[in-house]
Structures are given as C-alpha cells and as structure tokens.
TrEMBL record:
SUPFAM superfamilies: Protein kinase-like (PK-like). GO terms for molecular function: ATP binding; protein serine/threonine kinase activity. Residues 1-102 form the Protein kinase domain. This is Protein kinase domain-containing protein.
Amino acid sequence: AAAHQLMISELMACSLLDVLKSGSVVFNKPGLCENLAIRYAIQLSQGMNYLHTCDPPIMHRDLKPENLLLDHSGTLKVADFGLAKLRPRPMPQVDPEKQMMT
C-alpha cells in the first residue's frame, strides 16, 4: 500500500488575499500598511528559506496570496503544498582537468 503524508496545522484566521481585498477581523482595516507588508515579506522569505534548505529541498510551486494564511496573532504561514515537489540536491560539478585517476 502507498504511504500518505499529511500536514496538520491549527485553524487559521484568514488568508493574505482576504486582508488585501477587504481587511479582516485580525487587523480591522482593508489592505496592508507598509510595516505589515515588510513583516509578511520577511516571514515569507524565512519560510521559503526553510523549505529550500530542507534535505531534500521542498519547492512549493504555487505561492499566491490565497495560499499565505494568517493565524490569530497575524503570523503568516505557507499553505497548500499540493503542487510541491521534493528537489534532489544537484550533484557536485567535477572539473575534468582536476579529476585524478587511480
């Protein structure tokens, strides 16, 4: 039988798309102020760095505002890994000029 992997997380308050369109109960106003935009950009880059430095690296392949969820404290989390792929690490390049024969 094939093995299945599941990811379980807490219930999220809304998506970033919800906030961009009409605001949310988390922030009580539509859109993003500059400070929140910077905060989310940093959180997203930290999340992507984590995924890309896993062994093997994980490529999300479907980043968009509706796949970026916010918890009740306003922390951004990446969701929907349906198109994600594990990417094998590239083999080290061998310089034929420096290769030694034994």
